């Protein structure tokens, strides 16, 4: 037995040394989580399955199990997204039905593929699930509009696995003002402030992406636990409402929070005539016969590739990440590229390509430990603190 142990120890040296200098090996060895995966929306597409391999150039989708394996993504926060509708009883009811449908779709694909996926509800779950060879499924709510005027609904979603939530999306709602919505509340409404308290009580990470600056300021002030920006960027690189200024990013870090850097809004949008011309057809694509729908989706994918949203490329995306690291420190930066929600850049447009991020971080001189903080350690630290505050 001693001889076998010595032989193993002798073998460990060269392997460890190789891992220390090989970006691909380092990427595969660390825990990688993205905090904003809009991929559950693809489950509405007829015949689309998360376990099949797809291609962004064929149907525009960016994440599936085969490409996660190829890209070494261990998982992340899978989004229950609800579009903003009217702030009235009917609007809330329709939104709630939609959000519950999406939540159950996520649970269903996990239950159907237990060897490949597992629901995570605690900060300690991610490493265990990844070690078992499964992909990590944390549940996130983008836009808490479906909760209506009953904050008790947040508890119901928590019981079904929800662990991150943002108050708003594109449009002011009953809880808070949005970056591109009307300034109705001056930040959070009274109901929104109650939402913050309930999120803290339950142990739900508060996500300030899409929140107006006034809302962000109040979320940061009122929350008893650190908050995050699950998919936002630095305003210094591009002055866009969805990005935050240096002072707010520093304030976020000072209270233990993290900016998960988005791949969107890092340079001005460009005209997209072909894409815009196809939009009306895409809105009714699900009603087409399968062959016609497949052909239309391919045409749509090709148009999106030919007319990218902006000139943002991989180097520009890394520039945004490096800027945030230099501004607030490596302990307060992560990855939230907005996959399947409009994200992706020239040179990084599907999840199989994310080892390039690790390689670029290492090339800049970050240690393996710091790279893992950016990929998962920082958000899990925030989650652990959110759990601690809830436990009090």
From TrEMBL:
InterPro entries: Metal_Hydrolase, Pept_M19. The keyword Hydrolase does not apply. The keyword Protease does not apply. Pfam families: Peptidase_M19 (PF01244). Residues 1-17 form the signal peptide. Keywords: Signal. CDD domains: rDP_like. One of its GO terms (biological process) is proteolysis. GO terms for molecular function: metallodipeptidase activity. This is Membrane dipeptidase. It comes from Sphingomonas ursincola.
